[in-house]
Design a protein that fits this description.
The complex is a heterodimer of chains A (199) and B (218). Chain A has 199 residues and is of the alpha/beta class. Chain A contains 5 helices and 9 strands. The longest helix of chain A has 16 residues. Classes of the chains: A alpha/beta (199), B alpha/beta (218).
Chain lengths: 199, 218
């Protein structure tokens, strides 16, 4: 009950948040729900960012991630390549809600510069965005369509450590579907990674 | 008859697990069923590692009637799992005489076997150590019902083999579970069941006493 009450409180912070989750792998939001929005989050570029500022993008990919998790790091290159490939049409936004010392904004800035990360990388110390999306793992992906409804959520692909052997490319397939104006064939998969620690 | 059937099932379950052994020699099953040896899932001395799938693990848990079973899902790539692992060793030492059985399941690929074993030896993890037959793939997370797809993750079964607590990543919880939460739940399940108090006379309209331990952790 306490957890549910807190989740409700968290959702109230985010205008347009989702209804109670009926998804297979997400307890807060479901595919088809209006994507929860955040007011302003600081980015590694030193500016504050909102979801609304990406209104021209045909699709938005949100990934909850962090500096420290080895699985999240495994996906950095894949997400960077994806960002560059779709840069004109799709906005990629990485959000860290981690309060671990290694994941603070200054450390994020250092990593983004070192790895030349091409996507927006935002820090949410309040953790409310993670709660509003029901994010549990790093990395945890959400594909938003043109109306900013959740079109897909879960993993990027089906092979964490050997990307060349991945057979299912969930996020790419979902984005391609959104860009073509159709629903993704796979709308949800089980995200895999390090647990997001909520405090 | 029931006990015999249970012992046979336990022996079969143990053989299923050993059949998937990664690198240790297969331990021969005893010629005659030895209930005590089967009930205690630490048949080999030292640190060992065997491969298992979800059906095998379910059989393993079912073969431990009378035990409280803690299954910890971890991985070499998971920093908090490694940080928390020493608690498993501590609980194994502290509570095994009271009926706790600790089982660790590594969600790592097969090529990480040496790394897993080195870590387990460093930790002196002399309980039952297993590695998912599906490695770090999504089949592991779905097959073992690792809610939220995130590690660390623990499941705690009572003496009847019923899943009583799931400790998972959950954005709806006030805070992420801690080792203290897990230990508290272990102690609660190990505690002897309280005899219902025999009052002088119970009024028929009184509601039944509430079962404090009912159900899985939400």
């Amino acid at each position: 009950m306490r957890g549910a009450a807190l989740a409700l409180l968290g959702i109230l912070f985010f205008a347009g948040s989702a209804q109670a989750g009926k998804a297979k792998f997400n307890r807060v939001v479901n595919v088809g729900d209006k994507a929860p929005v955040w007011s302003e989050l600081p980015g590694v570029d030193g500016k504050a960012h909102t979801l609304d500022e990406y209104r021209d993008a045909k699709a938005v990919v949100i990934v909850f991630t962090c500096n420290r998790c080895p699985v999240a790091k495994q996906y950095e290159e894949r997400v960077a390549a994806f960002t560059k490939k779709y840069e004109k049409r799709v906005q990629v936004v990485a959000i860290s809600v981690s309060r671990n010392g290694a994941d603070r904004l200054e450390q994020m800035k250092a990593r983004a510069a070192d790895k030349k990360l091409p996507f927006a990388y935002l820090y949410d110390e309040s953790q409310q965005s993670g709660r509003a999306y029901g994010a549990t793992a790093t990395p945890h992906f959400f594909v938003l369509d043109g109306e900013r409804k959740i079109a897909y959520m879960g993993a990027f692909d089906d092979n964490t450590f050997e990307p060349e052997h991945a057979e299912k490319h969930y996020v790419i397939d979902a984005v391609e579907a959104v860009l073509e104006g159709r629903e993704p064939k796979v709308k949800e998969s089980l995200q895999r990674g390090c647990a997001i620690e909520y405090e | 008859m029931k006990i015999e059937r249970r012992v046979s099932f336990a022996v079969a379950a143990l053989l299923m697990i050993l059949a998937g052994c990664d690198r240790q020699p297969v331990v021969k099953a005893p010629a005659a069923p030895a209930p005590q040896a089967v009930a205690d899932p630490v048949p080999e001395p030292g640190v060992t590692l065997h491969q298992i799938d979800p059906a095998g693990l379910a059989a393993q848990v079912a073969s431990l009637p009378g035990k409280v079973v803690l299954v910890d899902y971890w991985a070499t790539w998971c920093p908090p799992c490694r940080e928390r692992f020493s608690h498993l060793v501590e609980w194994h030492k502290k509570y095994s005489s009271q009926g706790l059985v600790v089982i660790s399941v590594a969600c790592d690929d097969k090529d990480k076997t040496d790394e897993i074993l080195a870590f387990l030896k460093e930790q002196n993890a002399t309980f039952q150590n297993l590695r998912s037959a599906f490695g770090s793939m999504e089949k592991t997370f779905e097959g073992f019902s690792i809610d939220g797809g995130a590690l660390p993750h623990c499941k705690l079964y009572d003496r009847k083999g019923q899943l009583r607590h799931t400790f998972a990543a959950d954005a709806t919880e006030k805070r992420t579970f801690t080792p203290e939460d897990v230990e508290e739940a272990i102690a609660e399940l190990l505690a002897p069941e309280k005899e219902p108090e025999k009052g002088p006379e119970k009024k028929p309209e009184e509601p039944p006493a509430k079962d404090e331990d009912s159900g899985e952790k939400p």
